[in-house]
């Protein structure tokens, strides 16, 4: 199979079976076309099935020479790997030459974090004279007080909340459940929202137990949460690129800065590995120094 039919088949495979976004699809197609262009430029008039590991190594050296950053290199490698997985699945190649390609070492990408003052400033600009204002305040308080992912927030049910015990039951990645302390502030504003706003909403069938609803009585969407936060950031004059996940980062960072046990933070965030949680230690070097001074035998 030549390059054009192989790429066309790859496009159909990604669209039908992978359900990827158009941006990701475009990136994958570009990666494969870039490989074909490189091979043609070097005089290798070969089919995808004739590409060897050595050809791919030369290709990676070429893109490094173009001063393409490590993250873009990693994305290109991912695209080429996926292309050859597809060809292997279709029995167009007998082995995957991209299987042994090594990903470049990526620098740690530190998350954006809000200060407590910035969070307060965002909440202060919410228009509480409107019904959705009370809802939005409860949303921000819940995001920050509980460290939820946006998907966990929009899926949160009233029956998941135990006001008496002060916990919420969260359904996280992989359908795994965890208990997260609710906190007095989140509990207070969720209660106000339930009593003063949600009680008067005409709830649509299927959304009866969903906590946060839109004005049509249906489950609020992830996109709407992003929009609400971006509007509040603009209104408060916050000069940071933030999203719902920023509140999760802030929740974790402030806990670690305050001396919380990393294992406890891991449990509350629902991280499978402690190494994922360890990124939150980057902002408070004094916390790390104090931990060494307190617990290391040769302090």
Structure description:
The termini are far apart. A 3-stranded antiparallel β-sheet has the order 1-2-3. It is mainly alpha-helical. The mean pLDDT is about 85. It is built from 13 helices and 3 strands. α1 (about 5-20) packs antiparallel against α2, α6 (about 130-145) packs antiparallel against α8 and α6 (about 130-145) packs across α10 (about 245-255). The radius of gyration is 25 Å and the shape is elongated.
Features:
299 residues; mainly alpha; three-stranded antiparallel sheet; 4% strand; elongated
The chain-level structural class is mainly alpha
SSE series: HHHHHHHEEEHHHHHH
Identify low-pLDDT runs: none
Largest sheet report: 3 strands, antiparallel
Write the SSE topology:
Layout lengths: L2 H16 L3 H20 L11 H13 L4 H20 L26 H9 L6 H16 L3 H5 L6 E2 L4 E5 L5 E5 L2 H13 L25 H15 L7 H14 L4 H8 L4 H4 L7 H11 L4
Summarize the structure.
This protein is mainly alpha-helical and 299 residues long. Helix content is 55%, strand content 4%.
